[in-house]
Amino acid sequence: MTTAKVLLETGSTAEALPALGQGTWYMGEGRAPRRQEIAALQRGLERGLRLIDSAEMYGDGAAERLVGEAIQGRRDQAFVVSKVYPWNAGRDSAIAACEASLERLGTDYLDLYLLHWPGSIPLDETLEAFDRLVAAGKIRRFGVSNFDVDDMQTLARLPGGGDCAVNQVLYHLASRGIEVALRPWQRRQRMPLMAYCPLAQAGAVGADPLADPQLGELAADLGLTPAQLLLAWAIRPVEGLHEVIAIPKAASPEHVDDNARALEVTLDAATLARLDALYPAPQRKVPLDIV
To answer: In this structure, are residues 208 and 243 in contact, taking their beta carbons and an 8 Å threshold?
Structure first.
């Protein structure tokens, strides 16, 4: 199976990850049978969707505990990501928050630890905490989430800020504001994006491509479901480079299998042009879409 890969580079290390991972927002909260959700995450690992994204915020730790069950005995197969609340991101409080996440996850390290969104604690404090966590072997890399281009530029100017591995933001076909300034800036920095809500389940735009009959018709012409088309679009290469890891949530193994097929899809120029016509990118910078 041909799969799109995204290169995550930090310092002298680099790791290639599939352009499709697994999100866990609202998992572990009883919305679906627990065994089914665990089986879904494990199916994703079996399909090579190694990256599992969580956060201390999700269900007040319930999602992390679910992930911990799913990766038990499979830790070496998973690339585990979690996120710290902005108010827990101080030089000491971030250490405690990370240790609490590790306990819930049942692991002694995170592959990637993110600041969930910009907050009032100075970024240099957070960077100091992240550096200490890396030195202690409790996290392997750090990054941020919900940072716009001005936030990223501020971060990059701080000591250690250049070691930021990734920025996780809302991105889908109906919310393309990051294409104006943020995505090009990150491309110049060789810093990948992680796309949450890639199936357009949220955001300020309000459009729902999954229910759009024109998008449904285009997907059918390609032999895809609308969700597969949206995921294939989100992880499409730009200027020949795969730079987006999409992290849809899938609460059943069958849903995981459906999502995974998007890794094998290459959208031709005509299809991309049709999608651009249906959901054009803004022509000027707009506020970062956040949920």
So the answer is: no
Contacts of 80 (CB under 8 A, 6+ apart): 52, 54, 67, 71, 105, 107, 110, 111, 112
Query: Which is it for the CA torsion 44, 6, 184, 145, positive or negative?
Result: positive
Phi/psi of residue 156, nearest 5 degrees: -65, -25
Neighbours of 167 (CB within 10 A): 27
Condensed to tens digits (0 to 9), the pLDDT of residues 90-147 reads 999 999 999 999 999 999 999 999 999 999 999 999 999 999 999 999 999 999 999 9
Token readout for 265 is: 């899809």
Largest CA distance in the chain: 54
Burial class (CB in 10 A: 0-12, 13-18, 19+), 257: middle
How far apart, in Å, are the Cα atoms of 223 and each of 6, 208, 226, 261?
25, 20, 10, 11
3-state secondary structure (DSSP) of residue 282 = coil
**CA distance linking residue 75 with residue 191, whole number of Å:** 25
Predicted model pTM: 0.96
Strands 5-10 and 13-18: antiparallel
